[in-house]
Every structure is written in C-alpha cells, then in structure tokens.
Amino acid sequence: MASTLSTLADWQRAYRDGAAPARQLGALRERLLARGQDAAVIHLAGTAELQARLVALQALEAAHADRAALLRAHPLWGIPFAVKDNIDIAGAPTTAACPAFTHVAERSAEVVRRLEAAGAVWIAKTNLDQFATGLVGTRSPYGAVRDARRPDRISGGSSSGSAVAVAIGAADLGIATDTAGSGRVPAAYQGLVGIKATVGLVSTAGVVPACPSYDCVTILARDLTTAEQAMAVMSTTTQRPWPTSTRFAAPAVPVLAVPTELPAMAPGWDVAFQRAVEAARDAGMRVVPLDLTDFLAAARLLYDGALVAERTEAVGDFIIGAGDDAGLDPTVAAIIGAGGSHSATALLRDRRELDRLRERAFRELEHCDALLVPTAPLQPTLAEVAADPVGVNARIGTYTNFCNLFDMSAVAVPAGEVVEPDGTTAQFGVTVLGRSFDDAVVADIAARLSGVERGAVPSWPERAGAG
Fold first, then answer.
1. How far apart are the C-alpha atoms of 275 and 394, rounded to whole Å?
2. Residues 288-340 pLDDT 10s
3. Active site residue 196
4. Half-sphere exposure of 357 (CA within 13 A, CB side)
5. Which residue of 110, 268, 350, 453 lies most exposed, with the fewest beta carbons within 10 A?
6. Cα–Cα distances in Å, from 353 out to 302, 313, 356?
7. Do 79 and 121 meet the contact criterion of CB atoms below 8 Å apart?
8. Looking at the DSSP assignment, which residues form a beta bridge with residue 272?
C-alpha cells in the first residue's frame, strides 16, 4: 500500500476522505518494484486480509459518535505499518529470513495486536538480516535490501525491509527489532526516526528471539510525532513498571555529553557529527565531553565474548539441525553456531564485567541528561560488506552495540547529510541516549535537535500511562 503522506494527521485526514487501505494494496508492490526494492518484502498482505480489516475499521467508525471520539479510542486510525518478519501475525508466515524456519503464526505478537487495536493496518512482512543477526541488511536468502537512494549501498539492518518500506512511502510505520542497533542503524541510513525504548517497556511476546536479555521491539517513522504515538500504543506498564520518578521532559538547559574521540568514522562523517553538536548548542543545550572507553569496551562484549551464547540458546538447535538446503546465511550460521563454545563460567564472567563497565560508564554520565553519538560511522557498499562481512558489521555497530547492554533508552534522528569521497550524498543520523526510563528525556532532546515544536503535546511515556 503506497502512502505519500508524512504525518499521522495527514494520513488520518486522507483516510477520512476515502483513501481506504484495501484500495491501495497493489501500489505497495509497484512502488517497491519501481524503486528496485522487491527484496524488502517477504510476504504481502492479501486483498481479502485488507478488506476484512477495512470492514472492521468501518464498523468501529460507525460505533463512535464523532471523529474526535474515534481518534481518542484508536489514535493510529488507518495508519499502514510494515512488520519485520521475525514478528508474528496471526495466519501469516514468520520466516526470520530463513525459509526452513517458516511457520504460520496462530496468534499475533502483542505489539501487532496493540497497533491494530489502535486502528493501524499491517500491509507487509519485511526482510531482515537472518535471525536479526547483523546491521547490514544483506544476510538474507530473500535478497539484499538496498539503500532507498543509493542502490550500491546497504540499507542497514537487521530491520532492513521495514526501514526501506517507510523510507520510500510504502508504509508510514515500520515495526523493527533492536538488540545491537538493528532499528537505529537502518533509521539513520534511510533518514528516519527510530525509537528504542528502555528494555522491557515493549513486549517481545511473539517475536523470534535473537539475544533475549537485550532484545527490544522498536518503531520507525518519518517524523517524531508519529513514532512517539506508536510507541505510546506499543508500550506496556505491566511487563516492567515505570518508576514514579519518571521524567517527562528534559530540563530547560539539558546537559548533553559528547564523545571526546570518534573512532571508526569515515571521511566527512566526523564533520557531520560536529555539525550536529553545534546544532545542539544552538538549541540551547550545554555540551560536555565524555570518555567513551567503557561504553566501547562493553560493545565489544556483545559478539566477541560469551554473551553471544544467548543467540545460540535462542535458535542454535535449529541451525545445528538444519540441512544444507535450509537457506542459512553462512555468516549468521557461523556467529550463532560459535556461541555454543562458551562455558557458563565465561558467560557469568562477561556479565560481571558488563556490570563493572556499566557502573564506571554511568559514573562518567552522572551529571548529564543524555549522551549524543553518531548512529553509524559510515555507510558501506554491498561489495565492501561482501568482502569483509564481520569486520564491516562490527565497525557499523561502534556506537550502537553498548546501548541495550547498558539498558539505555534511545532515539535516533536524521541530522543532515555527508558528501562521500565519490561525490554521492549519504544521510547522516545521530542518536540521543539516556538512562533506563529516561525515554521522554531523550525524545525531548531529539525533538529540540530536530527543530520540532512539541509545545503542550505530551511525551510518549505520558501517553503510555507512565509514572
């Protein structure tokens, strides 16, 4: 389903005027194919499925006295969303980008049920790095998902298909997952907003696990308001209750930490980040330097240490037992298979080390409201990833891998462009990171960086019933 609309209000206006979801089904595939993005979609919602959803929406509409009452009860009325194909939808196949793993879900994931209850309409299951293992968007037998603007560049992963579907206007929301940056990296490459909440605030029930202790379901959208509204719908107050001390906004003059050094940055990308820092100062923030040493050390533990054993526990038995025709990506199979070599002692040791690093890192961050980092330090070509799949992926995750390990909240937002050495232009993004449950604080700072006037609009934690 193609939507050329950019905001929640625009879509709801068009829906009210008769732009019904079922009438635009064919346009989704046409738009993806026209942009060379056929690999972005694994399963497309059928006409019958959308027609049934349309009838249900019309029945709900008839049950409400007026439009205002309808939108209070169903705040995502008519919004089309794409779903990463490691998330279940009742009656639809879930592949996790592995044909032999395919099963038809009997029940939708909780996040899907929440979005549908709010009036949203799913229109596609989208491609991903197999078993959500990767930041590149190329590790899939269904094809490599390419950047929406530069087809020789990666889209970012693992939530590649959802990001591209939103970027090219084939959906207005993309449901993603994020363990090491899988939602934030493609958001940056595709010029989108990506919200990754505090671990546990959004249910992972009905999601194929990657690294269960750190998995998050995230949202991708073209504007912050739509993304925040979706997060308010998706979040829960029961799985991990909000503390009564939850902050709903940043201070008038936020203190923003920025790295003293920027490792792994490609030419021009460090300049783009410095422009974002200056924009923060111009927006009235106080910027202070912060040593990222402990953050980066924690990031390396995710794959270089025993924590990867969680991936093996999640899907390792399937991978070990799968045949040669299972459609396994060799890089993914190697990463997950290797996790079984770690002992329980090594896992406990690395978790203790992670606790130590977190304590030291947060001591550095103690008097700051948030940390600002580049979302990604470069955007490689498909050829560069093919030549060094593990090394390039690790470099991409420099500023994302530590986030979930440290139980941080995060909002990724576009922050201008980078002119590459070959003369092409890359989209650049930054991420605002905060402590757990500071989701509203980082969203508020991200809004100020983006020049969004929020005024009296409540933050998504307030709308979700936090506090």
1. 25
2. 999 999 999 999 999 999 999 999 999 999 999 998 889 999 999 999 999 99
3. no
4. 23
5. 453
6. 12, 21, 5
7. yes
8. none
